[in-house]
Amino acid sequence: MAEPTILFVDDDAALREANVQTLELAGLTVRPFAGAQAALGEIGSSFAGVVITDIRMPGMDGLQFFERIRAIDPEIPVILITGHGDVPMAVRALQDGAFDFLAKPFAAGHLAASASKALAARALVLDNRRLRAAESVRNESPLIGDSPAMTRLRDTIAQVARADIDVLIEGETGTGKELVAAMLHRGSPRSARPFVAVNCAALPEAHAEIELLGHAADAVPNSRFARTGRIEASNRGTLFLDDIDGMPLNVQSRLLRVIEEREVLPIGEARPVPLDLRVIASVKPGLEALIEQGGFRRDLFFRLNVVRLSLPPLRERRADIAPLFASFVREASAQTGQSEFRMTDAMRRHLIEHDWPGNVRELRNFAFSAVLDLAEPAAWESAELGLAERMRAYEEALVREALALAGGSVTRTVELLRVPRKTLYDKMQRAGIDPSDYRVRRTRR
Question: Do 302 and 239 share a structural domain?
């Protein structure tokens, strides 16, 4: 998946160059086109960007272009640039699903602001599509296991999802907290609305409030345009605050007000924005101790702890290890093209004897490593260091895959892998990975 890009289409070379420069100065990636037909070849159903097009153009005009885009994917945002006489046509296009229209002459800030909102809207559409696609290839319930603990958990999730109340999910690393949050969203009346996940532990403290709350135009240094925060982006949907116990204390107080008042005040704005959302938060065990140490606000805990779901670690439901492993082997085989799998005695012993501190995530990595190592079955009889080396190789492959999907964008790679930025840089340095090798080069026409 390439970096989100704006396709700017205008047959007037001077206006095209000026508007492209405006968007680039706002930090946006733009590809200019002199005609709609050439731009159309860059658009598919997985297109991650938006289209800005003039209406009056020779050949295929902007409205015909919009209709062609809508036939490919009706959820690709299209912003129309109109002359005074074209406004009625633009309004009709807006009613037919166009994202926005700008009547000439328009302020540069309006163009950049509309484009930024369109990119955010497209990102949410694609994120939710990926979420639904990932769920569709799983069993009816993606929580695999017939142990009493998992049976009770699935029943509880089904009940709580319909109740549309805030939920606190507690569990060790790798137990599936984000999966449970997604199931709660999918089973709720908000399932057709945005599911916005925020990795609180990966938020840089200096920018956490900006990321969550957003800001008005010119309200923060080096930012001329307004920005919609992740909280406001989840309006009418579900906000999932993953690892909220890692959220900086100064942001916790702002979040408390959001949850209590159901409104958010972006930085620099005079009036708050009302919200209709469901809040789901996840924490690791030991939050009460963190509260006693002053690392987490007690009042925020009480506000979030309306319903608490506790996810059992894998070592406490060992009967589920075999079916989970079998499911992950099937998934790995399908992804890698391996047609056969043979479990060795060493693999079986590891499944039985290991405590799985990384829980389901660690088990999944082990299954993928097992499938990938089929060409060298003797390696499974080696010392424990062999497994560690294989896991590092698999981890490196995941980093490279994420960088390729993100088009070399470190920010997007951090979001895909859900790791702190420093952790990602450490892993890339250790593996000799240069993100610029995966960057999509910008072309100018």
Answer: yes
Nearest to 217 by CA among 209, 228, 208, 207: 228
* Single-letter amino acid code for the residue at 45: S
Distance between first and last Cα of the chain: 22
Residues 296 and 165 grouped into a single domain: yes
Q: Is residue 108 a part of any domain in this protein?
A: yes
CATH number, domain containing residue 40: 3.40.50.2300
- d(C-alpha 28, C-alpha 23), whole Å: 6
Please state, rounded to an integer, the average pLDDT across all residues of the chain. 83
Q: What pLDDT, in 10s, does the model give residues 172-196?
A: 988 999 999 999 999 998 988 889 9
Are 327 and 275 found together in one domain? no
Asked whether residue 132 is domain-assigned, the answer is no
Contact 215, 226 (CB under 8 A): yes
Domain that holds residue 409: 315-438
Specify the pTM: 0.57
Tell me: the pLDDT tens digits for 42-79?
Answer: 888 788 899 999 988 998 998 899 989 988 888 899 99
Kindly report the length of the chain.
Answer: 445
Torsion of CA 404, 408, 409, 414, to 10 degrees: 50
